[in-house]
Design a protein that fits this description.
single chain; alpha+beta; 34% strand
């Protein structure tokens, strides 16, 4: 855990780094966020979970129920078509496809060999997730509802087959202490 000191407050950062080899999934990281709050010894404040990727989002959602997770995944894939040229699309692909213009190597900042066509993944991330979420901390605990969890929503995991590299993901958990919170 990184600790940044300023004259006003201490800010804590925990980074999660992992390979993302499954194409589309929800991954619960609530325990990692709770652990960051405990390790930072924060009683009141905020946690911000931030994805450093355009096709990996963050959500606060009920994901403990596996059938709901499958419904969410099916809905996202059904309502935003995959590019026909994508490596995801084969003769067994069961969701709609479309013709998009984008391909990964079109980005002038792309410094990897990646010949996939992932416009659908970018669009899903925009519609169905957030680049970051903020959760309050009170009495040393995340202020989540009974069924809420913090989850990563992957839209473009790669298994490393062909010329498409395995996605190496980084997610940040920032813990911001705040003293003197008063309930109104």
């Amino acid at each position: 855990m990184y600790v940044s000191y300023s004259k006003q407050m201490k800010i804590f950062l925990k980074e999660l780094k992992f390979p993302s080899t499954d194409r589309t999934y929800l991954k619960d990281i609530t325990d990692e966020a709770k652990e960051a709050v405990i390790r930072a010894h924060v009683k009141e404040g905020f946690v911000m979970v931030n994805s450093k990727h355009t096709t990996l989002g963050v959500v606060v959602q009920e994901i403990a129920e596996p059938n709901l997770v499958q419904d969410i995944l099916h809905h996202t894939l059904k309502h935003v078509p995959e590019d026909r040229r994508s490596t995801r699309v084969d003769k067994n692909y069961q969701h709609p496809t479309s013709d998009y213009l984008h391909r990964c190597q079109d980005n002038p900042f792309c410094d990897e060999i990646d010949e996939d066509y992932n416009a659908g993944s970018h669009i899903r991330a925009l519609i169905f997730s957030h680049p970051s979420v903020i959760v309050p901390v009170r009495d040393g605990k995340l202020e989540l509802g009974k069924y809420q969890q913090i989850a990563l929503f992957e839209f473009d995991g790669r298994d490393g087959k062909g010329k498409n590299p395995i996605r190496q993901r980084t997610v940040q958990i920032w813990v911001y202490p705040a003293e003197g919170i008063k309930q109104l």
